[in-house]
Design brief:
Distance between the termini: 37 Å
Helix content: 25-40%
CATH class: Alpha Beta
Strand content: 15-25%
Number of helices: 5
Strand order of the largest sheet: 3-4-5-6-7
CATH architecture: Alpha-Beta Barrel
Number of domains: 1
Radius of gyration: 16 Å
Shape: globular
Order of helices and strands: EEEHEHEHEHEH
Largest sheet: 5 strands, parallel
CATH superfamily: NADP-dependent oxidoreductase domain
C-alpha cells in the first residue's frame, strides 16, 4: 500500500480510503455486520489505514460498526466523519452547520465510534445560513479541546471555501 500526506499536514493516509456508506442495512440495502466486517478485514489486510464513515450513513450504524472493527488497534486508523445533515428527524437544531449541531454531532459520533477523538471532521454540506466565522470558531474549539485533529469542508461553493481562511481570524 502507498500512502500520501493529508493535504498540507504531516498525517499519512493510504491512497485507498474505505467508504462505509454500505455498512448497515437500515436504508434497505447494504451489508450486514458480518459482511461489513469482511470488507473491513480485506481493507486492513491490504495495508490501508483511512476510513470514511459520516454520521448519517445508515443512520449511524456505519460508525458503530467501524468503532467495533477498529477497537483492537485504534491508533492505526485514520477515522474521518462528517456532520451537517439531519440525524434527528426534523428537530429544528438537529441539522445544519451551526456550532450546536457540530458539537452534538461530534459527541454522538465519538460515542458511536467508541473513540476519544476524531482524526478528521468534515462539514458535510454548506447550509448557506451559518456564518463562516461560526463554523471556523466551532472547528477550532473542537481541535483545541482534543476532540478533533483535522478539519475539512465538503460540498461547498469553491469561492466560499477558498475565502474561509482569509475571512476568519482565529
Amino acid at each position: 500500500m502507498r500512502y500520501k500526506l493529508l493535504g498540507n499536514s504531516g498525517l499519512r493516509v493510504s491512497e485507498i480510503c474505505l467508504v462505509t456508506m454500505t455498512f448497515g442495512e437500515e436504508w434497505g440495502w447494504g451489508g450486514s455486520y458480518e459482511e461489513s466486517h469482511k470488507m473491513f478485514d480485506a481493507f486492513a489486510e491490504a495495508g490501508s489505514n483511512f476510513i470514511d464513515t459520516p454520521n448519517l450513513y445508515t443512520n449511524g450504524t456505519s460508525e458503530k460498526y467501524v468503532g467495533d472493527f477498529i477497537a483492537v488497534d485504534r491508533e492505526k486508523w485514520v477515522v474521518e466523519t462528517k456532520y451537517s445533515l439531519n440525524m434527528k428527524n426534523g428537530e429544528i437544531n438537529g441539522f445544519s452547520n451551526h456550532c450546536k449541531n457540530m458539537v452534538q454531532a461530534v459527541e454522538a459520533s465519538l460515542k458511536r465510534l467508541q473513540i476519544e477523538y476524531i482524526d478528521w471532521l468534515w462539514l458535510h454540506a454548506w447550509d448557506f445560513t451559518t456564518p463562516v466565522e461560526e463554523v471556523m470558531r466551532a472547528f477550532d474549539d473542537l481541535v483545541r479541546a482534543g476532540k478533533v485533529l483535522y478539519i475539512g469542508i465538503s460540498d461547498t461553493p469553491a469561492l466560499l471555501a477558498s475565502t474561509c481562511e482569509l475571512r476568519v481570524k482565529i
